[in-house]
Design goal:
Layout (H helix, E strand, L loop, with lengths): L2 E3 L13 E5 L3 H13 L3 E5 L2 H9 L6 E5 L7 H11 L5 E5 L4 H9 L4 E4 L4 H29 L10 H12 L7 E4 L6 H10 L8 E5 L5 H9 L16 H4 L4 E5 L6 H13 L1 E3 L6 E3 L3 E6 L3 H7 L4 H7 L2 E4 L10 H15 L9 H9 L5 H15 L3 H10 L1 H4 L5 H12 L6 H23 L4 H8 L3 H11 L5
Parallel strand pairs: 2-3, 2-4, 4-5, 5-6, 7-12, 7-13, 8-9, 9-12
Antiparallel strand pairs: 1-3, 10-11
Length: 482
């Protein structure tokens, strides 16, 4: 049976580990390799034969590499390798064999194996092969990511509101400069889209746009990710690695969540911004780069400077041009255009029929505060397209309650208050209370109906009223199913 071995290291303190699938019919070898690889920081899945391995892939397992025995009962390693190619033709597979013959090695490489190991092998041999496999895979992933970013650099930039039009004008104004840019705003407002817009309108647009999330990596890994390292700089540094600054040379480096960067790294970043040079981890030679830096944060850097958690000199070095992005609730005129953009994109991506948003959903969007901003709207549309239904999106909006809907949930009450203010002296206080209670009752009934997918009997039970009473109230409130 397939066995999944859990990593002993904490997932919270480091980025996602590389995952390796070990396929061998010998239980002793499977257990030995699983323990050895886990001690080296890998996550491990194991399978006792080719059929079990293919079943894991079919069930959604996504290893970064496979150690595959050649001689196994049932389907052998070569046939298993051919089956794996149907799931992922770029998955690195290292063949394990006791044969050691030239013909077996040639057959393995011709079948698409990334490398091979002859049993028994030393731990150092395994380390060498895996390091080479992952170095190549990392380089290929990085190249594909950079090419994709060059081909589609600006994301979805919608600027119908006055604040976003001002942002577009500011970006166009600095297009031909290399000044650093600091982008601030709530999580999900589209800071990366603005960063890509800065890059795509600049003279560097044909060069790489490289993103680093400063909050996603521990300090020691973030330093090596930014600046790279020399062979032997630390345990596991089996080769020389380029950092993001080198990969972004002549292009743009986007440092997301810059407020999470540790003080030591802040000093090194300041040095690079001032001199354009740095040294790799474990190296003494200065590396010269030409990189435009764009940073983003959802934290108040000025307050962090006052508290001493962010360097003042670095803050002023980054804050040459400051772009503040308003939350989506403050630019509601862009909601529908963004929704339509996402709708077209995901209908095409998932090969689902394009369906316009219903009046019911448009009305819900008009009232909803989108605490998750543009990212939340995008995920809602993606869910709606994949499931081919608006029900889950409507349920999410109504289930979040008034506190999540912010100004959206209280829109009707604010409208009522405005009406009372304008007609002061004409509307009795008792009438104001009656109207408010009626509106609250309507919103409660509407929310419960969507939660039960308009099952009126279930809704009546939840509301503790008779079925007949509920039907009457639905008519009185003018409610209709989507």
């Amino acid at each position: 049976m397939a066995r999944k071995a859990k990593s002993r290291k904490s997932e919270a303190s480091r980025p996602r580990n590389r995952r390796i699938l070990v396929v061998d019919d010998a239980e002793g070898i499977r257990g030995y390799l699983a323990n050895l690889l886990e001690l080296r920081g890998y996550d491990v899945d194991t399978a006792e034969d080719g059929r079990s391995a293919l079943a894991l892939l079919e069930a959604g397992a996504a290893p970064d590499a496979v150690l595959l025995d050649v001689m196994m009962p049932g389907i052998d390693g070569f046939e298993t390798l051919a089956g794996m190619r149907k799931f992922d033709d770029e998955l690195p597979v290292v063949m394990l064999t006791v044969v050691g013959s030239a013909s077996a090695i040639v057959q393995a490489m011709q079948a698409g194996a990334a490398d091979y190991l002859n049993k028994p092998f030393e731990e150092e041999e395994l380390d060498r092969v895996l390091a080479a496999v992952f170095e190549k895979r990392t380089s290929e992933e990085e190249r594909e990511r950079l090419l994709e970013q060059i081909e589609n650099p600006a994301g979805n930039f919608v600027a119908n509101s006055e604040p976003m039009q001002r942002i577009r004008e500011a970006i166009d104004h600095i297009a031909d400069t290399n000044v650093t840019v600091l982008i601030q705003g709530e999580s999900g407002v589209g800071k990366e889209i603005i960063a890509r817009r800065v890059h795509s309108t600049s003279s560097r647009s044909k060069q790489p746009f490289v993103k680093v999330n400063c909050a996603a990596l521990p300090d020691e890994l973030l330093e090596s990710e930014l600046f790279g390292y020399e062979k032997g700089a630390f345990t596991g540094a089996v080769g020389r690695k380029q950092g993001k600054f080198e990969l972004a040379n002549r292009g743009t480096l986007f440092l997301d969540e810059i407020g999470e960067m540790a003080a030591g790294l802040q000093a090194k970043l300041l040095h690079v911004l001032q001199d354009g040079t740095f040294a790799k981890l474990g190296g003494n030679q200065e590396v010269q780069v030409d990189v435009r830096v764009v940073c983003a944060t959802n934290r108040g850097l000025e307050d962090m400077v006052k508290q001493g958690s962010f360097r003042e000199d670095l803050y002023y070095r980054l804050n040459v041009v400051n772009i503040g992005i308003p939350p989506l609730r403050d630019r509601r005129e862009e909601v529908m255009e963004l929704a339509e953009t996402f709708l077209r994109r995901y209908s095409a991506k998932y090969r689902r029929p394009y369906r316009a948003l219903s009046a019911q959903l448009q009305s819900a969007f008009a009232r909803y505060a989108f605490p998750g901003n543009v990212r939340e709207l995008e995920n809602m549309i993606k869910r709606m397209v994949v499931l081919e239904s608006e029900t889950t999106v409507l349920e999410r909006i109504f289930n979040r309650g008034p506190e999540a809907e912010g100004d959206g949930a209280s829109t009707n009450f604010e409208a009522l208050l405005e009406e009372v203010t304008e007609t002061a002296g004409q509307v009795p206080l008792r009438e104001v209370g009656r109207r408010a209670a009626q509106e609250a009752e309507r919103e409660t009934i509407e929310r419960v109906l969507y939660r039960t997918n308009w099952n009126r009997k279930q809704a009546a039970k939840l509301l503790s009223v008779s079925y007949k009473t509920l039907l009457q109230k639905i008519r009185d409130c003018g409610l209709e199913p989507a």
